[in-house]
Every structure is written in C-alpha cells, then in structure tokens.
Amino acid sequence: MTSNEPRDPLAGLEDDVGFQVAFLEEDLLNRVAFRVLQYRKAGGLSQAGLAEMMQTQQPAIARIEAGEANVTLRTVAQLAFFLGCEPEELVCESEPASLQARWRRHDETRCGLVTSHS
Fold first, then answer.
1. How far apart are CA 35 and CA 39, in angstroms?
2. Would you state the pLDDT for residue 115?
C-alpha cells in the first residue's frame, strides 16, 4: 500500500470482539425494529393502537421501530402476541412467509378485492 492509497477504516475490526458484539447487537435491534414496523403496518395498526394494546405509550413503539429501544425478550413476546406472530418471526433474517401472506391480504383488502362477510 502506498501512502496515497486510502486506509481501510474497517481494517483489523474483524478480529475485534467488542466491535463484532456491537455489530450483532445493532443488527438484531434493527431487524426487530423493521419486523415490528412491517407486522404493525400489515395488520393495519397505528403506533398508538399497538401501544394501547401493550399498555404503553406511542413513543415507546416509535423507539422500538427506530431501533433505539433495547427490547427485552418479554417485550418481544408481547409484541409478537399483539402483532399475531411468533417471537422468532421478529428476529429472523429472512422475511417470514406469514408476513408475505399478510401483506397480500392487506393490499387486497385496501384495494377492495376482499370483502368481509358478517
């Protein structure tokens, strides 16, 4: 490497355990945040509506969806219950099939393609 080549800012971090743990934590928090947002929207819930169901405040849901809340397993379980999914679906890397099906139903209902029969 010559002195004119830019230095890789991530060089050496692959061996830094502290960096690896922090990276995994952020990745998991962001994954949960994104899944909560997806399930909430697919279910037609507002942040305030989900907060009311969970007996908390809307800003708490906003922090979760922004990846700013360090959620506990208890909170993940509560979120899953009220969002109608399994807890592991909120932390998995790939999009769960159940979420894909919900989006299809949500889109069809919104477009008037599905009608409910009482």
1. 6
2. 47
